[in-house]
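Deliverable D5.2: sample structural annotation.
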Amino acid sequence: MSDQLICMTRLIQNNFAGHVSKTVLLNALLPFSFASLFGSLIAAARFFPAGYDWRVLVISKLTSPHDNPQGCWLPAVGIMVALLLAFPFAGYVAQRLHGIAPRLGRSAGLAFAFGFVLMFLSVAVQLAQPVIGLRWLHEFLARAAAGTFVAGMLCCCACALKDRVRCFGGQGLLPATLALCWLSLTLLPIGCAVGIGSLMLLGHPAGLAWAEDFRQSFRHTVFWQLAFWEWIGAGVAFGFLAGSVLLLPASCGDTRKRSARALAPAAGGVDSFCVDDGGHHES
């Protein structure tokens, strides 16, 4: 019994450290994470007291004990379970980018890990608001989580550009489709946010009539609503996770060995410790 407990503990530790196979992530962890998040949110939205419009009401309304006193536990637990299931992605992507840009790969993994942890804490803090108060803390942690997750996405984009652009010493170890996936899922939402922010700054405060007219007409559309972008952001985040796992090399040893062959063809192998698609360790 004790040996089984030790093996289970080590398995959990390895999973959280990113020592998990591509098959497990694609066929188990990410699908269950997706189902836990959106399944619980959709169920909570159907029974929301005053009716829930996802285009107008932010996600935190569903997990708020104040706005959804009877049903806040379901989406809150669903979100936290989804974050726990997705957490191994942080170590997984860091390992597979190590052979291309060690610092950027490590930074990406840390950013994703902190993003998952901060979002977990933000949901837990919101559930505890009736006891601890501090309503501002949930919003602060949620924004910090979103910011760190985006930082991880930018680190991945930087790795992809470093790998694909020759003037940066690129070796072409990552698929071009992966670079396109990362850049589109990261830069397009950032571009939309910058555009909306520019409209807010160039309108009435700056005294530009044309910008103010466009802002006033734009603010009556769904694209002006924070809730709409929260749901889109959640979908983009899962698309980024799934696309990364699908297109990254199945084994971190593949990337490191290709990098070693490109830099020193006469050299031997590279030492690595990771899990390949079959779940076997390489050393």
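Annotation notes: Residues 20-255 form one domain. The longest strand covers residues 274-275.
The annotation will be released with the project's public dataset once the embargo ends.
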